[in-house]
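hey can u run this one w/ flavin-adenine dinucleotide bound, need the structure tokens asap thx
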Amino acid sequence: MSPTVLPAACEVLVIGAGPAGSACARTLAQAGREVLLVDQHEFPREKVCGDGLIPDAHAALRALGVYDEVMDRAFRAQHVRCVAPRGGHVDVPGTLAVLPRRELDDIVCRAAREAGARFAAPWRFVAPLLDGERVVGARLKGPDGEHEVQARWVVLATGASVPPLVAAGVCERRAPSGVALRGYVHHPELAQTLRELQIVWHPRLSGGYGWIFPGPGGVFNVGAGLTGSHATEAGGRASMRDVNLRQMLEAFASVHAPAAELLERGELRGDWKGAPLRCSLGGARWSRPGLLVTGEAAGSTYAFSGEGIGKALETGLLAAAALLEGGDDAAVRARHEAALAGLKPRFALYEKASHVNHRPWLADLVVWRARRSPRILRRMSAVLEERQNPGRLLSWRGITKLMFE
Ligand SMILES: Cc1cc2nc3c(=O)[nH]c(=O)nc-3n(C[C@H](O)[C@H](O)[C@H](O)COP(=O)(O)OP(=O)(O)OC[C@H]3O[C@@H](n4cnc5c(N)ncnc54)[C@H](O)[C@@H]3O)c2cc1C
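ok here u go:
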């Protein structure tokens, strides 16, 4: 493996070529900025994910000009089936698609290169270069040793990984917000009939949910995960709950027949893999002099659903916009932080709504009501399309309304 040669300096160094970093790099390069995008892995590479593209991702992919390429390869679906503990379900209409991250991320990263960004891998971010308190570049490690790159600005888009946040001096919480496990299972027969995204709540999966997302070529992304997995200890330190995701997956198969069918009769492609999530725009500082933090590194994944591709792309675009407007250090940082702060109320409502994951009986109530009320189903669809916040539907007030309306 020979790493791409690195320049000694660039205008903007974007670290991490997932959706956030690549979206940021493409936008900056399109505007004529000299961008170096680096990643610790050569592309294409896998990223542990459910691969579900919900409407916010569709909108961001359109803004980036890669929508058609993504949709040509993706499995497209018209609704998500929400399955409640007693087995009742409701199909919520929405613009949905599934494409393995190995392909999706490669498309967005390639789009950044096509716009003129220089991509170099495998280079791992080790530490920032400092001039006093200001970040003026980064030290990167490749297979043959370390290399320093000077940069006017550094954008940290390293996802849910903690070491880069710590190294950059922006980590405020090491424990993740959630953890999840996924595998790819080939089952062409089931693919004839299971053509929607499925999300399943059940007391055996309490604290989270299981999912089955049909992808291209009769391959399903199957998984289970916990949201809000970090508990706050005395003293305010957050720590990981003891979680056995394998057991959770087995529990999923024991309560949901299609999951059992996939696990028992499908062909597993690759390994089951788990990964952390960082949610609700928390856990890290959003900037420091010379450095902007974006995507899941800034906690851009939704706590309720664990979805984060769309918001990673969006926040990558916001970081680019903050840089493109120019001005001094303080002005760029203030713009970036204000843009993230503008999203915070929406994230707070998704955090609130995530209590359904801890009280699965709520899913029974919502599904039961939605099956009888086209208006409630429309509201659920509006939540999926981000025209309405889930907090309104799943707050105690919303639930009381559901019960007594
Ligand atoms: C099991 C699971 C299921 C999920 N399902 C969904 C789903 O169905 N839909 C959805 O929308 N979201 C889902 N998510 C969330 C989604 O994966 C994230 O929100 C999204 O990947 C965040 O994008 P990002 O660009 O910020 O970070 P990432 O996609 O994690 O990209 C970060 C990049 O930085 C690189 N990197 C990390 N550290 C370094 C370093 N030190 N030096 C150089 N490079 C580095 C990585 O190699 C990676 O390429 C899921 C997450 C998990 C764990």
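The first strand starts at residue 9 and ends at 15. anyway lmk if its weird
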